[in-house]
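Dear colleagues,

For the upcoming journal club I promised to circulate an example of a predicted protein-ligand complex. I picked one with heme C because it came up in last month's discussion. The inputs are reproduced below in full, followed by the predicted structure.
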Amino acid sequence: MPSSVPAARPAAIAPTGHRRWAMGMPFVMAPRQPWCWPIVAMPGPGSLGKVPAMQHLAFCLVVALGLGTVAIAARAELPERLSQTGLDGAGVRAFEPRFALWSDGAAKRRWIALPPGTQVDASQPNAWRFPVGTRLWKEFSVDSRRVETRHLVLGADGRWEFASYVWDGADAMRAPARGQVLTLPDGKRYDIPSVGDCIACHAGARSPVLGFAALQLGPAVPALLREGLLRGAPARWVTQAPDFVAINAAEHAARGYLHGNCGHCHFDGGVPVPLRLALDVGGRPAPVDGAAVLRRAGTRNPYQQMPPLGTREIDPQGLALLNRHFNPEILP
Ligand code: HEC
Ligand code: HEC
């Protein structure tokens, strides 16, 4: 392990339920990450000599040491069936983030349900806080066929619970906490993430809810405010949607994409590399090394790929947005 990587030690579980490394890295990572296998199983001397591979290796060790907490996170308090989670009940509303996460081309729909009479606390514009009992869902379809619906609930103890439900006929059943590999009708492999994966992306972020957030909802925010769903929000949001400052449309699209796909790990206090891809309401994007971003987003070599989990295929449209902004001369 390189000396720059601190020894891994379990962080205390904060009252909010977020588990973090001392350096702010999401605490629990899954044991069976595809991006860990080649490194742990057969460390090729060529790749390990390179710094990113070493960091990756360190990250995998972190993963292995975090296993103990996966057990805690996987407390099976969520119902067995999706139909028991309240998705068909009253007060469920659909929403759509502006900068969606690339999920290898799957089509997605999302919903939120707040307990009756409650509001989202928007007083920290970049990290909304949700009332106990908040529920969110995200449904994934491939070739117009529902495959899984992921579910997030804020429990009475202030901890977020994560689960995925796998569709089978008219209902979906809770997947094992360690995740699951499905084979789709066309023979394609489909990964249901482990609870450790959910936590790696969601629980370490500024808010564990990633898409129902000021910059992600953007133009939809004034209506939410008028409906009384938000409290503590800046008064100007009633008429002016929250946004970040960009010099042109290409920058807005590219930096929004990086915020949505990378910002939950790469923020101040996130993974310990000097790369700030999360955006702030009203702020300018931090300068970044565009070549490094293009290189990591443009590969699915497990030593190098970004994001490191949740995808096996490059996002062609996302990469085009990034090229248009960081590398405009190579495009027609
Ligand atoms: C690779 C990172 C990643 C992993 C792994 C991941 N998520 Fe997410 N998730 C996101 C991002 C980013 C969003 C918001 C953007 C979007 O929906 O396209 C999101 C959105 C959601 C939403 C909608 C509410 C919200 O936060 O906006 C739910 C529910 C959800 N995820 C549940 C889960 C569950 C449960 C798991 C594990 C089974 C999981 N996610 C795994 C990154 C991830
Ligand atoms: C689940 C957390 C996570 C997500 C999401 C994520 N990264 Fe990373 N990223 C890491 C970790 C951990 C490292 C350090 C290990 C390594 O270099 O592989 C890293 C390293 C990097 C580096 C090298 C930085 C340096 O100084 O060495 C770049 C560039 C990068 N990421 C870009 C991205 C981009 C672009 C995205 C979105 C398309 C993204 N990352 C999404 C966790 C993440």
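Two points we might discuss: The pocket of heme C (ligand 2) is lined by residues 52, 55-56, 59, 200-201, 258, 261-262, 264-266, 271, 273-275, 292-293, 296-297, 306-309 (CB under 6 Å). Residues 51-65 form the longest helix (15 residues).

See you all on Thursday,
B. R.
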